Amino acid sequence: MTFEDLGVRDDLRRAIEELGFEQPMPVQEKVIPHLLHEDTDVVALAQTGTGKTAAFGLPLLQRIDPSDNAPQALILSPTRELCLQIGSDLADFSKYMPQIKVLPVYGGSSIESQIRALRSGGVQIIVATPGRLIDLINRGVVKLDNVHTVVLDEADEMLNMGFLESIDDILGNVPEQRKMLMFSATMPNEIAKIAKKYMHSPVEFVVGNRNEGAANVRHIYYMVNARNKYLALKRVADDNPNIYGIVFCRTRRDTQEIADKLISDGYNADSLHGDLSQQQRDMVMRKFRDRVTSLLVATDVAARGLDVDDLTHVINYGLPDDTAVYTHRSGRTGRAGKTGVSVAIIHSREKGKLREIEKKIGKKFERCEVPTPQHIIEKQLYNLADRIERVEVNDAEIDKYFSGVRRKLDWLSGEDLLKRVLSLEFNRLLEYYRDAPSLDFIDEKPAKEKQAKPRTDKDKDRRTAEKGMARIYVNIGKNDGFYAGNLIELLNHNVSGSRVDVGRIDLLSGYSLFDVQQADARRVVESLRGSEWLGKRVYSEVADPDKNYTRASSRKSRAQATAETEAIETTYEYFLKKNRGGAKKPSKPSKSSRKKR
User: Fold this and answer.
1) If you average pLDDT over residues 83-112, what whole number do you get?
2) Separation CA 152–CA 76 (nearest Å)
């Protein structure tokens, strides 16, 4: 199958051949002929990086009337970066169509220059982010009366970013009989509702299976103690000398902190999150696209619309709550027929979330051992050997200096010289990994060991901290609607100073226990004591391994229930007497009266 077979016109084929397009990709084979010859609406489900822009862009350009200077096609994208990328691609495709003008309009840039471009006329295709387009419509600058085609690209991302109301407003300014195309990586229920509301009997094209990740992506995970996540991240980077990837974190704070640590440890890393200005963001992305930066640490929101080819790895430093978000993350690697790796670095309590993602994407995660120091050093040495083999030698220039250098090093044998070259490159790495421990979390013990272990106190293990950590008790648990995420939120809100690393967490019905570094224990206890959780006063202490917190919690709960019952009963008696002809306002029952009861 060729682009000529699909019906693509000569001037478009000439442009895309110069761009290196040889054979159409699966989504292009399915979508292009339909868009060229049919008038029905289209929903196309395919991962980012599978050639979607050409799939809708080539037929759209072919249907534009160059003699009509009014906007005829509208493409909506969720982010500034994707908007610019689509605009650039369409400009490249229309290289030999000089009458066609494509204009990207987006926030974060001068609206005046965009207004001037629109008023100058001759713009047939507008590529826009929803917010800026609505602004231009409200100013009376953009008229969409002649638009015959509307494209929603990355529709699921637009939904995640809260653009549903904006899309509604925009489509109210477009003719009812327009043709509508929706491209999405996943098909959650909300996207299906959008299709039903705005589209007329759409034809659906699916490349791969609904909601599945990219077919060329290998999904692996490493399980470590929570405090060892960063060490595991460094080992993954060291074990892949030519890594080019994105590290996804859950919060802006984590993103900046991890990036700062990587930079401090000598990695070519940078951060991308919402606290950056647009100028800082553009600089970060330019360095990453130019491969000056090999590891980009980012939040999901900041990375939306970031279109970068040839990523070798996507690393999930924290798993997302939404499976669709994981699908988007992993879909950023393994594009255009290339292979990629999606890595999850998790602790034992994230295993359930991992299994849930497996069910949704229909793929099994492979558990791997965290790379050992020996394996890392071997990979790095072989990588250096490859670089030495492939280096281009400029004999004419080197010969000017070679004889003097050779005289200086002539006393060294070839083997000695090679060892010194390797040592020059690897002494730091060898020193760092000397006596480095295994990081893998052993979550299952042999059956014999389990049977042999005496079980004198079923709660004792729970109250004992792991080595190097301190166990903290707080008087709130599952009965209070308190879970791991709430604990992290409580710590972030109340504990000032440097970030607290949390290890093992045990959530019980009436209380919770968790590990922190010993140096942080006193600071955490003092910060939490007296704080509040949903109106309940928090009590905290360094856990005593010999104290039965379950029994203490149970006694406290019973006492609290008794007090509440007596208060209700007393109030009830008061209202009975009042209805019979007057009564004194109830007071709190005395201890003696409670004993009599």
Assistant:
1) 88
2) 5
Quick one: DSSP state of residue 48? T
Closest to 275 (Cα-Cα) out of 245, 294, 297, 246:
297
- Res 564: pLDDT: 42
Q: What are phi and psi of 49, to 5 degrees?
A: 90, 10
Crossing angle of the two packed helices 323-330 and 351-361, in degrees rounded to 10:
70
Amino acid at 280: Q
**pLDDT value of position 300:** 82
DSSP 512-528: EEEEEEGGGHHHHHHHH
Q: What is the pTM of this model?
A: 0.51
Contacts of the segment 1-6: beta carbons below 8 A, 24+ positions apart: 1/29, 3/32, 3/58, 6/32, 6/33, 6/36
Determine the angle formed by the axes of helices 229-238 and 252-264, rounding to 10 degrees.
50
Give the span between the Cα atoms of 318 and 417, in whole angstroms. 44
Phi-psi region of 495 (alpha: psi -120 to 50; beta: other; left: phi over 0): beta
Q: Cα–Cα distances in Å, from 269 out to 246, 253, 272, 288, 293?
A: 10, 16, 10, 9, 5
Cβ neighbours around 418 below 10 Å, total:
13
Q: Which helix (H) or strand (E) holds 297?
A: strand 295-298
User: pLDDT higher for 466 or 520?
Assistant: 520
Give the Cα separation of 540 and 550 in Å (integer).
15
